[in-house]
Design brief:
Mean pLDDT: 95
Low-confidence stretches: none
CATH superfamily of the largest domain: Type I PLP-dependent aspartate aminotransferase-like (Major domain)
CATH architecture of the largest domain: 3-Layer(aba) Sandwich
Radius of gyration: 21 Å
CATH topology of the largest domain: Aspartate Aminotransferase, domain 2
Helix content: 40-55%
Strand content: 15-25%
Structural class: alpha/beta
Shape: globular
CATH class of the largest domain: Alpha Beta
Largest sheet: 7 strands, mixed
Order of helices and strands: EHHEHEHEHEEEHEHEEHHHHEHEEEHH
Distance between the termini: 34 Å
Number of domains: 2
C-alpha cells in the first residue's frame, strides 16, 4: 500500500529485460573499434534470426517511425501511386507520411476497431495496376486490432507493388513469415517485444524492394538505406550508433532466440486470451472483438465512465501505467499490453487492480471473478504437469 513499484503495462515502452538493462552500463566503448563491431555484428545476426528472414536487415538509430519514414523515402519517387490501409491512429500516420513525401496515396479507411479486409485491398489493386507499394499495420495498437497480414501479402506479391508492414508491435506477438509470405519491408522497434528502451528501429528489405530502390529518386540523407547496407556489410553503421542500446539488444536477442520467437508469440497470445476472458467475466466489452490482436487488448469502459479514471486509478493506487485511448477514442477505452517481458503474474495483478478500480467507480464487480478467468487460462496451458522437488 505504501510501497508502489512502477509497472509499465503499455504497448511501448514495455518492461525491460534486466540483463539487457545491466549490459547497458558497459556502453563506454567506441563504435569504430573491433570490440563494438563484433557486438553489432552479433546483434545483426541475432535480429535476422529473431525476425526469421534471409532478407537484408538493418538497425537504425531512431524510433520505429524513423524506419517507417525510411521505407517511404528509399523506395519511391514523387507522385508514385501507393495504397495505405488505415484503421487507427498508426494507419493515419502512414497516410500522413506518404502524403508528406508527395506520393499519390489511395487511402483505404475503416472505422477504429475494424481492419481493412484483404478483399478490399485486392479490388483496389485490380483497379489500380500501377500501384507501387502497399502500407499496413500488422497490429494497430491504438485499437487492439490486427490485420490479416498473410492474406494481404499473398495478394500484393502477385503484383509489381511492394508490401510494407509496420510490425513494430506485430513482431513477437503474431506470426510474421517475412520470406514465405512475401513481406518486402518489415519494420520493428526496440521498445516493444525486444524488451529494451526506445531508440532503435529495425527494417528488413527484400530483393523486390531493393529493385525499386535502384530507381527511386526521393531525397534522403540520414535514412539512406543503400548507404546503411554498405556500412552494415562491413559490420558498421553510417552514423554514430546508439551503442548502449545495441549492447542491450544483443543480450535481449540472445534471450529471445534461446526462448524461441514462437514461444514469445505464444506468451503474448495467451496473455491476450486471458485478458479477453477476464473482460467478459467482468461484463466489459472489447473494442475490437472481431479482429483482436495480441500486442494489446483495448477494452471499452462501462457506459458513463471515462477511461481516464481507470488510467489514473492504476497510477495512483498501484503505481502502474496503462494506456488510454488515442485520438477520438480517448476517454472511451483503456489498453493493456502483452508484448515482450510480461508474464502471467503481471496479468493476475493488473486484473485484480482493474476489479477494484471498476468497483470504486460504480461498476458492479464480484471481486476475483476476472482474476479467476486469467487463472483458468494459465491452468489450462501451464499446470498440466505437477512440480517435483
Amino acid at each position: 500500500m505504501h510501497i508502489k513499484k512502477q509497472r509499465l503495462l503499455t504497448p511501448g515502452p514495455t518492461p525491460l529485460y534486466p540483463p539487457a538493462l545491466h549490459a547497458m552500463m558497459a556502453s563506454d566503448v567506441h563504435h569504430r573499434t573491433q570490440d563494438f563491431i563484433k557486438i553489432q555484428a552479433s546483434a545483426m545476426q541475432g535480429l535476422k534470426k529473431a525476425m526469421g528472414t534471409s532478407n537484408d536487415t538493418l538497425i537504425l538509430t531512431a524510433s520505429g517511425s524513423g524506419a517507417m519514414e525510411a521505407s517511404v523515402s528509399n523506395f519511391f519517387s514523387m507522385k508514385d501511386k501507393v495504397v495505405v490501409c488505415s484503421a487507427g491512429k498508426f494507419g493515419e500516420r502512414w497516410a500522413e507520411m506518404v502524403q508528406a513525401f508527395g506520393l499519390d496515396a489511395i487511402v483505404l479507411t475503416e472505422p477504429y476497431g475494424s481492419v481493412v479486409s484483404p478483399e478490399r485491398l485486392a479490388e483496389t489493386l485490380k483497379a489500380n495496376p500501377d500501384v507501387k507499394g502497399v502500407f499496413i499495420q500488422a497490429s494497430e495498437t491504438s485499437t487492439g486490432a490486427a490485420h490479416d497480414v498473410e492474406a494481404m501479402a499473398k495478394i500484393v506479391r502477385e503484383t509489381p507493388a511492394i508490401f510494407i508492414v509496420d510490425a513494430i508491435t506485430g513482431l513477437g506477438t503474431m506470426p510474421l513469415k517475412i520470406d514465405e509470405w512475401g513481406i518486402d519491408i518489415c519494420i520493428g522497434g526496440s521498445q516493444k517485444s525486444f524488451m529494451i528502451p526506445p531508440g532503435l528501429a529495425f527494417i528488413s528489405v527484400s530483393p523486390k524492394a531493393w529493385a525499386l530502390n535502384a530507381n527511386s529518386c526521393m531525397p534522403r540523407y540520414y535514412f539512406d538505406l543503400k548507404r546503411e547496407k554498405k556500412m552494415a556489410d562491413k559490420g558498421e553503421s553510417s552514423w554514430t550508433p546508439n551503442t548502449s542500446h545495441l549492447i542491450a539488444l544483443n543480450v535481449a536477442l540472445q534471450y529471445i532466440n534461446d526462448l524461441g520467437m514462437d514461444k514469445l508469440i505464444e506468451n503474448a497470445q495467451l496473455l491476450a486470451k486471458a485478458t479477453r476472458h477476464a473482460a467478459a467475466a467482468l461484463d466489459l466489452e472489447l473494442f475490437s472483438p472481431n479482429n483482436p490482436g495480441s500486442s494489446v487488448t483495448a477494452i471499452k469502459t462501462p457506459a458513463g465512465m471515462d477511461s481516464g479514471l481507470i488510467v489514473k486509478g492504476f497510477r495512483t493506487h498501484f503505481g502502474a501505467i496503462i494506456a488510454n485511448g488515442q485520438g477520438s477514442m480517448q476517454g472511451k477505452i483503456f489498453r493493456m499490453a502483452h508484448l515482450g517481458y510480461f508474464d502471467f503474474a503481471d496479468m493476475f495483478a493488473v486484473i485484480a487492480g482493474l476489479e477494484l478500480l471498476l468497483q470504486q467507480n460504480g461498476h458492479p464487480v464480484e471481486l476475483g471473478k476476472g482474476v479467476a478467468a486469467v487463472q483458468k487460462v494459465y491452468a489450462e496451458v501451464a499446470m498440466q504437469q505437477p512440480v517435483t522437488a
